[in-house]
Amino acid sequence: MFTSLSEKLTKALRDIRGLSKLSEENIAPALAEVQSALTSADVNLQVAKDFTARVKAACLGTAVVDAVSPGQMAVKVVSDELTMLLGEGERAIDPRRPLRVLLVGLQGSGKTTSAAKLAKHLVKKEGIRKPSLIAADLRRPAAIDQLETLAKQEGFDFRADRAATDVAAMVSKLTQEAESSGSDLIIVDTAGRLQIDADLMSEVANVRERFAPHEIFLVADAALGQQAVDVAAQFNATTPLTGIILTKLDGDARGGAALSMKTVTGVPIRYVGTGEKSSDFDTFYPERMAQRILGMGDVVSLVEKAKEVVDQKEAERLAEKMRKTDFDLEDFLAQMGQMKKMGPLGDIMKMMPGMGNVQVGAREEKMLGKTEAIILSMTLKERRKPDILNGSRRARIAKGSGTQVSDVNALIKQFSQMRDMMRMMKGGKGKEMMRRLGQMGGGRGGFPGGFPGGFR
Predict the structure, then answer these.
(1) 306-450 — its CATH code?
(2) What does CATH list as the number for 3-87?
(3) pTM for this structure?
(4) pLDDT tens-digit profile of 354-391?
(5) How far apart are CA 60 and CA 385, in angstroms?
(6) Which DSSP letter does residue 352 get?
(7) Going by fewer Cβ within 10 Å, which terminus of the chain is more open, N or C?
């Protein structure tokens, strides 16, 4: 997400980062690049102009702290303004229980899948015990079936009345039944249209009046860019929204919708969908997003993600084995498994400071898959004692993993180098370690940090 915008803003900031003095003349070219980057990312033109005007005023009017260079101060100004543009400060979900949530939006925006994703997120983050999903799109039986399937997959309560004709009355009745059964979260998935019309707005208004929701979220497709912003503004004018769920953010390289939404509509982005999996959904943190756009990483989210998926005891066991330099290929396989739980390697790299523009895609993921296949083709004894891997064993492993013997040889060589480096670290041979690290990083594999798995 935001790939092009991030690259252009990083370039513009690189030009001003080293400035020893800020003046209207020397920051003008960089600010012009910033504005161009925003508009090319499909950000509303007026929003882009106002943004650069605020950055300029702040840069020229900010007292520079002694320990920070003027150029660095300018970068901080851009970061702060970008955070404000995205919607500074997050808003907690309404604390009332049972919590009533109304989802509105156009057809195809991801509204139905977002209903299940939001419920799962609130179960994990807010202590919700029994979510209930209500299908209120009576015009599209497929939408009802989809919501029912998603609810069953997650073990959530599902309610619908396919024979109903009065949507508002049906929602009111099913809500009462759900709450009587102990549900502490009711999410209503309303009907969508290909475009906004009077019938849609009237139906949504009637449902809202009978349902009395605590939260009203518009589900908007980020890929629509400024059209998504216009849709949000129209919905908010007739059905006051409490927040926006921005979907398909993973496929929107430009990011104009996210950057314009709060300013144009006055409604904050509350949640984002970043993929097809039910877990690809999270609270929207403006400051973290701003840092990622500017290539500063998102260490907080990385740590939170690691805490959620990594087995702490297993991680401590692996760390202890590495400390004692008693690390084998069985341990490396376990480490790969822990990392895979955190998601695609490319997503993890983007959360690391300075690594936002490192391209990690299908090729690198394939390389990791090949490494895993090779190790899995070994016996337990071979993984624990790689030194016994003679020519015939390596040939068998290559055949079993669908790779070449040269790939197996490269893996064993890199693993041996890594183990030797760890031993040198333990023995304090710093210079020798750095020399070997350089050899590994520039060798045949090219795997980050010299770890096994880099195949051409």
Answers:
(1) 1.10.260.30
(2) 1.20.120.140
(3) 0.70
(4) 555 555 556 777 788 889 999 999 999 999 999 899 99
(5) 63
(6) S
(7) C
